[in-house]
Amino acid sequence: MNNQHYFFAVDLGATSGRTILGSLANGKLEQEELTRFPNNLIETGGHFYWDIYALYFEMIKGLQEVARRGIELTSIGIDTWGVDFVFIADDGAILRNPASYRDPHTFGRLEEYFEKVMDRKRVYDLTGIQFMNFNSLFQLYAMRQDGNVALRQAKKILFVPDALSWMLTGETVCEYTIASTSQMLNPRTGDLDEQLLKSVGLNREHFGRMVRPGTQIGVLTEEVQKMTGLGPVPVIAVAGHDTASAVAAVPAKNEKFAYLSSGTWSLMGIETPEAIINAQSYDYNFTNEGGVEGTTRFLKNICGMWLYERCRKEWIASGERLEVRGERKLVRELSHPELQGSAMQVEAFRSIIAPDDKLFANPPSMIAAIRQYCRETGQQVPETPAELCRCIFDSLALRYRQVFQWLKEFASFELDVLHVIGGGSLNKYLNQFTADALGVEVLAGPQEGTAIGNIMMQAKSAGDVRDIWEMRRIIANSIETVAYHPTKDATAWAAGFERYLGYLEVSGKR
User: Fold this and answer.
1) ∠ at Cα 69 (6, 447), nearest 5°?
2) What is the Cα–Cα distance from 245 to 183, expressed in whole angstroms?
3) pTM summary value
4) Chain center to CA of 234
5) What pLDDT is recorded for position 1?
6) pLDDT tens string 376-401
7) Which is nearest to 132 in space by CA: 80, 201, 193, 82?
């Protein structure tokens, strides 16, 4: 008789999603990607939305594939990007597709909130969350000011992974790690803060019960059972925020590490037993987000491969060509390593940008935005795809250096290793730049950290593993990491960093 447990992970990012089947066997994690699909932004009426029904449909398709194979699932877990949410009416209907954090309706609202509603320092003291205009608090404030009808009629407000769990189970919860991204959760109380909710016209009853990673939410409804051919499979609240799941999958040997979750966003931080909320963390604008087993992810959000992804999309659309090994090829014909490798032929630090400048939030043209920044700061303007790639990679590594230096000031332990997880862990050029810029060993992998963390939290809920460190030992035994060591370019990187800081000062004054 086969007593092996099978776990179904739904892993949704801001550009794509996957369903994965995972299990543990002989002390190792086994996983198989069942489906992969795009997560498209919908632009209509001057706003950007996510298609929650399309995501639900893709979940059902993945579950139908499991049933077709005759596999008995132990549980289901869902992780997604942070801050966004779904409005539910009192009759159980979804009120409009959820707005995307990239919607421009929040531009300028953060400053307006601090001026008219609550002091900036007071908000940080309550939440310990990095100020970003798209945080849930400011989205809700913007919607309230704009007279958003869906918000006005909402009986429940569910963050995206909680909304998808509700669609599967009919149960409304508020998972801790995803709630911690909202700038409405107080880490000292472990719950949503009534003062902040009241400031946007809400109360605690608008949200589901607070649950921690590893809690069972419910089981598949009869409707979903009929559609999928499965039985009453439990749905588990994993670390619902994809970064929390990814950090849970860091194959660290002990707590003395920093991590970089590298994808559309770069998230660099450390794992701490408690939130760090003080004048220094406020000045540096660091965030305290929920982790597994009561830990805090003390980190900073950095605009990551979004810069490269957007440029590449433009090059493909315009039919841009690039010379590779003496032949001019269309960018769409090139692999990522080929396109990125061309950047290595460009002079280092030729052009440098501040990745988190507001110019790069969601411009009509990322290429034009990068060129504008370089012109405004008196630099050489990158023209070719190779020059733009080199600019992006140099700049990201320099920003990582800045944030890593700050982390060393907060950490109660030595930081001599950086674990890079997520899709960016495959970028060997950026990984080497990061090792050079930081002056520490960089360990790259796993690539699919979010899905692994999702599966392992389900395994913990099922009793297959004891704690986070057993999870990490199994993960380390199941994957291969690639080590990158600093080269002898320390002087060049130090000089590049000084230039970066100078451009940062110039751009901050415009």
Assistant:
1) 50
2) 19
3) 0.91
4) 25
5) 36
6) 999 999 999 999 999 999 999 999 99
7) 82
